[in-house]
Amino acid sequence: MTHREQMLAAIRGEPTDQIPWAPRMDLWCIAQRERGTLPREFVGLNIAEIADVLGAACHALRADYTLKREARDLALRGFGIEDHPDYPLRVELRGLPVEFRQDGEFFRTTIQTDAGNVTTLLQHTAEMKRDGISMPFVKEFAIRSVADFEAIAQIFEHLEVIPMPDRYAAFRRRIGERGIAVGNGPIGASPMHQIFHELVPQEQFFYLYADERDALRRLAARMEPFYFKVLEAVAACEAEVVFWGANYDQNLTWPAFFKTEIAPWLKKAGDRLRACGKFLLTHTDGENQKLLPLYPSCDLDVAESVCPHPMTLCTLAEVRKGMGPKTTVWGGIPSIALLPSSMDDQKFEAYFDDLFAQLGRGDRLILGVSDNVPPDADLSRLRRIQERIRAFGPVRPVQIRA
Question: Nearest CA to 273 among 248, 256, 297, 298?
């Protein structure tokens, strides 16, 4: 089987000749390139070609972030929206004056609305690049107070979603049989999650959600038409798997918030995508122990970037059980396992003895590093994991009757 065939079979709960293995390499690659320490065999390679060298599947989630792109692609990043040549859609602001300026490591966007100007400021330092971080951090958020809600609503009402099927098709051809080219949807799984995750400092959001919840929900409702446009655009592209939403944590997206503000949109997006013959993938890194009872009702197809103990409270077996029998888990290997400074060789081997003992039949599983192969990783450990996967052998799941 090809890597792509293995991964799709795992998502469908079908037999595979081995557990798929798709470590995410973009952070490692960017860091090594910026430090001038990229090994010779990886120089000039994209993520698909790096996967070829490693003999692993390509982790092609949303885009290849090792590729260079225009600064203008970040003009709306302060609103949780960006552009990339691999994305299946482009978002443009129409009908409102906008000024975007780059000054060294800073990116400033100012948008004029009838309710006043909105300015965001991003920063992408050389140190961040040396750590492999491909996206700038937000220094000044779009929302400072409730007084900004009207202007933010107007901005989202002036966003146009332009399907770009040819761009995604080129991304998919580049990945080929090396893996699944996962089509890009929004970072925020719902409008409210987008407000929390992208538009306001998180600590301020907790106060707003307690004191101004009705106003927040009115803002989220005015953002919903944009979300429906994005959903239709990704549903129309040829992606087999679509990314929708990221970054859940029981302390930040606490259970009551997740149940009310996130889960309904994950279910809605998944139903629409499955009606088009696609699978929904969501990026579930974070502490998920108290969220596990809520995931089955979301009808997720793939829970990606699953990070287990010792970096979180749950073992991989506990996460797989909690996600439910129809959700494929992608991840399961904590990044610290690749760092000799965190696990010596003896502890590494013992950890993987235990991890593989937990796998059962190995069905509905794509092994990967959560969330990313770190810059200081020992790459020989990737090869050791691959050897263990081969030794585990074929996957023969028991079929679940509907």
Answer: 298
Which residue in this structure is represented by tokens 């320490």?
37
Contact 360, 325 (CB under 8 A): no
* Dist. CA 330–CA 315, nearest whole Å: 14
Tokens matching residue 329: 């888990």
Q: Which pLDDT belongs to residue 401?
A: 52
Higher pLDDT, 285 or 261: 261
Domains and CATH numbers, the chain: 3-74+82-92+144-392 (3.20.20.210)
What is the pTM assigned to this prediction?
0.96
Q: Which two tokens stand for residue 317?
A: 């077996």
Overall size of the chain counted in residues: 402
Q: What average pLDDT does this structure show over 126-137? A: 94
pLDDT at 371: 87
- Buried b or exposed e, range 110-124, using 16+ CB within 10 angstroms: ebebeeeebebbbeb
Helix or strand or coil: residue 179? strand
Can you give the C-alpha Rg of the chain in angstroms? 21
Beta-sheet strands, E only, within 284-372: 302-306, 328-334, 365-370
Other CB atoms within a 10 A radius of the CB of residue 136 amount to 20
**Close Cβ partners of 289 (under 8 Å, ≥ 6 residues apart):** 250, 312, 313, 314, 318
366 and 10 in contact (C-beta within 8 Å)?
Answer: yes
Residues 34 and 63 sit within 8 Å (Cβ to Cβ): no
Parallel, antiparallel, or unpaired: how do β-strands 179-182 and 58-61 relate?
parallel
Give strand pairing partners of 110: 99, 119
- What is the residue-wise DSSP string for 180-214? EEEBP--SSSSHHHHIIIIIS-HHHHHHHHHHSHH
CA 263 from chain centre, in angstroms, equals 16
Token readout for 378 is 């020992």
- E strand or H helix at 281: strand 279-283
Q: What CA–CA distance (Å, rounded) separates 43 from 376?
A: 17
Residues 6+ apart with CB under 8 A from 378: 338, 339, 340
**For residue 343, what is the DSSP state?**
S
Listing DSSP states for 362-392 in one string gives --SEEEEEES---TT--HHHHHHHHHHHHHH
